[in-house]
Design a protein that fits this description.
With 206 residues, the protein is an all-alpha fold. The chain has helices spanning 4-14, 19-25, 30-38, 45-51, 57-62, 67-103, 108-135, 148-168, 172-181, 183-199.
């Protein structure tokens, strides 16, 4: 009950409603909604039922996720977990053959591994945070400015495009060796990007 304001805000932002939108839905003012969300005042039971926005009333009262929200979160976790496992298997295979093939002048496995590894770390970060969300009260960042999510996605796209360009450039033989030497920094960057993608998505948690 103590976090009812935060629960109302979470239910509202999940449905991508502004405070004005929600105020019109429950026939009140934006300032009243703001007071509910900041804890300055508490809605009565009748108002809570109108504020539920399709979620179970207990979700507003104690923050417990509904069954549908838990199933959706579990589905996302399974999908990303499967993607992570596929990338991990591909990386393990490429890692086993890339150095041997490189000695024979074939840089294709090395290039593929240098692309797969950052993507694996990105997917791993997302999957770990989603798993933590399922068993803890960890939630994605709510109420972030509208430009944050596109900025994070654009940064991810830029980093991935730069990586791909480095691999396919005519001078990639030299660049690949430099990328291989800087694998730790690249992996750390994409792990951070994976975490940011999870934290800034519209709805990652149950």
């Amino acid at each position: 009950m103590r976090d009812i304001g935060a629960n109302i805000r979470r239910a509202r932002t999940r449905r991508r409603l502004t405070q004005d939108d929600l105020a019109q839905t429950v026939h009140t003012t934006r300032q009243t909604i703001s007071n509910y969300e900041t804890g300055r005042s508490r809605p009565d039971v009748e108002t809570l039922q109108r504020l539920a926005l399709g979620v179970e009333l207990t979700e507003l009262l104690d923050g417990a996720p509904s069954a549908d929200a838990r199933r959706a979160a579990l589905r996302r976790l399974c999908i990303m977990g499967a993607v992570t496992l596929v990338l991990a298997g591909l990386w393990a295979y490429l890692h086993a053959v890339c150095l041997r093939q490189y000695q024979h002048g074939d840089m294709t496995p090395l290039a593929a591994m240098l692309i797969t590894e950052p993507l694996l770390l990105c997917a791993l970060a997302w999957t770990l945070l989603q798993a933590l969300c399922m068993v803890t009260r960890l939630r994605p960042r709510r109420g972030a400015p509208c430009w944050v999510r596109p900025l994070v996605r654009a940064l991810f796209g830029l980093c991935l495009a730069t990586l791909l360009a480095s691999v396919v450039l005519p001078a990639s033989g030299v660049i690949l060796l430099r990328l291989y030497g800087g694998r730790a920094a690249t992996a750390a960057l994409f792990f951070l990007l994976g975490a940011l993608l999870w934290l800034t998505q519209p709805d990652a948690g149950p």
